[in-house]
Task: inverse folding
């Protein structure tokens, strides 16, 4: 039976703009008939996988999501003494294995059209294949079997998956599902009207009175619910049954989800926060989000405590209706006096 790890987090952010829409305002959603502020799944996952937490715990096991593989191959060949036209041709052929290459008259003809997730092993294989081509071994199209891997040590690909349109055989199903985060209560974006003053402007310049610049930036605040579901068996399979790397990936995910915020407008808002509450669950039962605990927006004067209570009560009702939805649980509660638990205990639980 499949084993699942589920994480439910409540994190409070003060004034911030973690994840903007096309107009620059915090992303939003209407849920339960009430406006909420939202942070997209993509924003959360990128913040986590590019965090220092991932770099420290998964050193040597992180992929690159890039259009620039061909550029790296080209520079490698130039450094090896190849002629520019030869290096360009080989680089385009090698990179073309990972996605559609831009036209040869493009400004960056070595770039792939789409962002491709490339594991460390595949990056090495690409450079080795380029060296062989430079030595006279012609590149046959396609070279998928020589350059792409079904499993490798790239923990972020194993967790978040990848899609290669031209080589679906080497797609990777994501072992980690991340829901969009949203506020547990009604929340709308507000406008911050601001001015910037020219430090060198003199009071003796009456014709140039006022600010040097006037602008508006948008922000919001609230307690956000974040849900993550991990198929731990699929994660292990994606990593070629390398359990130590899988355990490091789970540890990194738990720590990053609890401590790392998206980087949007950090310089303006310093919106760095840690989870107020984390519920971790393990078991083989069908996973379920607890987002419906907040269909009725949280009210009152203590959003954090009320959100935790709503989450716990809804979980208990689901267990009563459907039977136990998890075999074991751990919590970390930084709000209630009767709370407890620690990040270290959550990590130990996740990898056990």
Result:
């Amino acid at each position: 039976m499949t084993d699942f790890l589920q994480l439910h987090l409540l994190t409070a952010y003060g004034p911030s703009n973690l994840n903007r829409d096309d107009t620059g305002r915090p992303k939003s959603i209407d849920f339960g008939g009430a406006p909420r502020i939202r942070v997209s799944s993509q924003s959360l996952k990128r913040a986590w996988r590019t965090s220092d937490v991932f770099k420290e715990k998964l050193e040597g096991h992180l992929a690159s999501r890039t259009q620039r593989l061909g550029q790296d191959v080209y520079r490698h060949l130039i450094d090896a003494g190849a002629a520019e036209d030869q290096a360009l041709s080989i680089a385009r052929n090698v990179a073309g294995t990972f996605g559609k290459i831009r036209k040869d008259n493009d400004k960056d003809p070595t770039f792939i059209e789409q962002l491709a997730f490339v594991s460390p092993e595949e990056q090495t294989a690409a450079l080795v294949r380029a060296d062989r081509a430079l030595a006279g071994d012609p590149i046959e199209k396609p070279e998928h079997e020589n350059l792409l891997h079904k499993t490798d040590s790239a923990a972020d690909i194993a967790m978040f998956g990848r899609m290669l349109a031209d080589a679906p055989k080497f797609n990777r199903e994501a072992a980690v599902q991340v829901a969009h985060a949203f506020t547990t209560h009604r929340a709308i974006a507000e406008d911050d009207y601001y001015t910037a003053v020219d430090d060198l402007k003199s009071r003796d310049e009456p014709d140039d009175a006022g600010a040097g610049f006037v602008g508006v930036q948008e922000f919001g605040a609230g307690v956000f619910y974040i849900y993550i579901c991990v198929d731990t068996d699929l994660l292990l399979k994606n990593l070629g049954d390398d359990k130590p790397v899988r355990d490091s990936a789970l540890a990194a995910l738990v720590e990053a989800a609890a401590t790392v915020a998206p980087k949007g407008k950090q310089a303006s808002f310093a919106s760095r926060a840690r989870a107020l509450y984390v519920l971790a669950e393990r078991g083989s039962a069908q996973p379920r989000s607890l987002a419906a605990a907040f269909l009725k927006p949280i009210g009152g004067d203590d959003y954090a405590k009320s959100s935790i209570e709503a989450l716990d009560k809804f979980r208990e009702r689901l267990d009563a209706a459907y039977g136990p939805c998890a075999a074991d649980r751990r919590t970390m509660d930084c709000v209630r006096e009767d709370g407890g638990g620690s990040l270290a205990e959550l990590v130990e639980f996740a990898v056990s």
